[in-house]
Amino acid sequence: MSSTSTVPNDFRDKVVLVTGAGSGIGREAARSFAARGALVYCADINDRGLAETQSLITKASGKVQIAHTDVSVEEEVSSLLSRIDKEAGRLDVAFNNAGITGGAHRIEEYPMDDFDKVLRVNLKSVFLCMKYELPLLKRGGGGAICNTASVAAITGPGGMCAYAASKHAVLGLTRVAAMENAAHKVRVNALVPGWTDTPMVRAESAQNPAFAKHGLSAIPAKRGGQPSEVAAAAVWLCSSEASYVMGQMIVVDGGMTIGGFEFE
Ligand code: NAD
């Protein structure tokens, strides 16, 4: 990173962008970056959620700006990054985290429009964000990007073809971006959350009880993760402590993808 500080996990004087910051993992990451001294730009389409995140950070004496941005639309991503450049004059870290699950259907029945939407919001958005973030990061001498994938990027959850395909592709994009930018001192990595107790998962479980039953029973930790436990890995990946970590993923899933079985 272009860090002037030698204190690990210190984001003082850093400008950080978090997408999907109006809820769940993104909100907790935004709070954590702000608590470590960063000026955090929070982007989301959920204005109410953004206002809540802003209020939480402000109450904790953190520095925050909010931006209504649909990260699947190129003009909106481009104007967000222009705004950050104009106002803050730099960007040091980006957590590209906004995402949706889409409905649960077998491949033969998966609605085409839903498939396109999930790919747009989960995959195209990460491409667009990096496209407009990278020039700013490089101009500042380097930085870090973390893209949110999912355990669905390394497994095959039935009923979630669009989600799994989009998240597998996020890992591919992450590795290409890491390769292309390592020499420019921009590190790019991925966060791979497992079952995390956020509004997204609560909505999915209400619609699809099998999702809750099978998902939770597959976790060795016997519980879902808290958004703050998952966000912590993204913050670490973007910190100076992770200065030699590039093109990797950190799986934070309570052991869900260990793939073994317990000894009795
Ligand atoms: P969440 O629903 O609490 O938060 C996601 C946020 O993204 C919401 O505030 C939503 O408004 C925003 N968003 C959706 N579409 C957007 C768009 N087009 N532009 C801008 N913002 C948009 O969910 P979460 O669980 O915190 O999810 C965060 C990320 O973590 C997602 O990428 C998700 O796929 C991933 N993830 C979550 C889990 C989990 O169990 N919760 C597991 C694996 C991966």
From TrEMBL:
Highest taxon, organism lineage: Bacteria
Listed SUPFAM superfamilies: NAD(P)-binding Rossmann-fold domains (SSF51735)
One Pfam match: adh_short_C2
InterPro entries (alphabetical): NAD(P)-bd_dom_sf, Sc_DH/Rdtase_CS, SDR_fam
Keywords: Oxidoreductase
GO MF term set: oxidoreductase activity
UniProt xrefs under CDD domains: SDR_c
Record-stated family: Belongs to the short-chain dehydrogenases/reductases (SDR) family.
Annotated PANTHER family: DEHYDROGENASES, SHORT CHAIN, ESTRADIOL 17-BETA-DEHYDROGENASE 8-RELATED
Name listed for the protein in its UniProt record: Short-chain dehydrogenase/reductase SDR
